[in-house]
Every structure is written in C-alpha cells, then in structure tokens.
Write a structure and sequence with these properties.
201 residues; alpha/beta; Rossmann fold
C-alpha cells in the first residue's frame, strides 16, 4: 500500500440529447461521448479500483473499463449529479430565452438563487463532501478512478481549493476531462491538486 492516496477524476463524455440541464436525467453517452472517454483513458490501467456515479453516462463506461482492466467497480449514489429541478431536461438556450434573469442569477450565485424544486447547492455540497470523505477513508493508500459529473468534480475541487461555494462555476470541467488529487495518508495531511484537465501518464 502506498503512503499516498491518489484519485483521478474523470467526467463523463458527451451524452445523447445535446446541451441541456441534465442532472437526474439518465441520458446515455452519445457515440462521440464513448469515443471521448476511451480516448481520455487510453491504455492506462494503473488504478486499484474504479468508483462511479450510478447514472448511465458514467456507469456504462466504468463497467466497460473495469471489465477490460479487471479491477473492482463500486457504484456510489453519493456522487450523482446535482438535480436541476424545473430546468431538468430543458435546453440551456430555452431556459435563457424564458428567464434570462433567473439563469444569470443562478450562474452568479447558485446558493442565493437556487433552482425551484432543484437540489439546494449547499445540500449538494454536503452530499458530495460525505461521499468524498468516505472514498478517502475506504481507499486509503490506493490509486482509484472516480467517474462522475461536472458538478461533482467542481464540488470536490472547491473543497480542495477552499473556494467559496457560490464560485463553483468558475471551474471549467469539459467532457471526459481528467484531474488528479493526491493526499498523504497522514490524517492531518491536506490533499493536493496534481493536475486539472490534464493527461494520464
């Protein structure tokens, strides 16, 4: 077992259905999305285990990958995406045309201007924080891959960088982007961001 815990964060690729608010909606990956994720991972297989959101745009690729590299897979509901409430399934352009003010307020301050019927961002942050703490505890000293969503990855990086919660949209997380976090197994050690939107090596 290593003295470091290393976690690679992989966002899912492009889903079917185009650009829209897609939190709880379970759209599968498009053909391009599959290609994006396979390209991002390449022949890399140094992980001890893979953890995935249960949503199919993450879990389908995680199952394919673990079958290929013969490593265990854990599906964790705590890493599901933020629910976008009344905007779920609607195109971003449609929401902007219908209520540009509400959309702009949400982008600027998602805590102070939540989406009606959506998951409050503070609750989302607590959920991701609990799942992340559990991952670091359960996989201490291992190198693991977390296949998740843009919002999930932003929340993890927000905690790591001690960013204000209302500034999460400042972090770019493209489809199939990979980031790496490493933490010494000393319980007092702080995790480090090794790279963001980088490449496996």
């Amino acid at each position: 077992m290593s003295v470091f815990t290393t976690v690679d964060l992989l966002r899912h690729g492009e889903p079917e259905g185009g650009q829209k608010f897609r939190g709880a909606i379970d759209d599968p990956l498009s053909a391009l999305g599959w290609e994006q994720m396979r390209t991002a991972v390449g022949n890399y297989q140094a992980w001890d285990a893979v953890i995935s959101s249960p949503l199919i745009r993450c879990a389908a690729f995680a199952r394919e990958l673990t079958g290929r590299i013969d490593k265990p897979l854990t599906i964790t509901g705590g890493f599901s995406e933020l629910s976008f409430g009344i905007w779920e399934g609607r195109a971003v352009a449609e929401v902007n045309a219908a209520d540009a003010q509400a959309l702009g307020q949400f982008w600027r301050d998602p805590v102070g201007h939540p989406i009606p019927q959506g998951e409050p961002v503070a609750d989302f942050d607590r959920r991701i924080g609990a799942a992340w703490d559990g991952l670091l505890r359960d996989y201490q000293g291992q190198h693991v891959l977390l296949v998740a969503h843009g919002g999930v990855i932003r929340m993890i990086l927000r905690r790591l960088l001690d960013m204000p919660l209302h500034r999460i949209w400042r972090i770019e997380v493209p489809y199939a982007a990979i980031s790496r976090i490493r933490r010494h197994c000393d319980p007092e050690a702080e995790p480090h961001l090794v790279f963001h939107n980088g490449h496996l090596a």
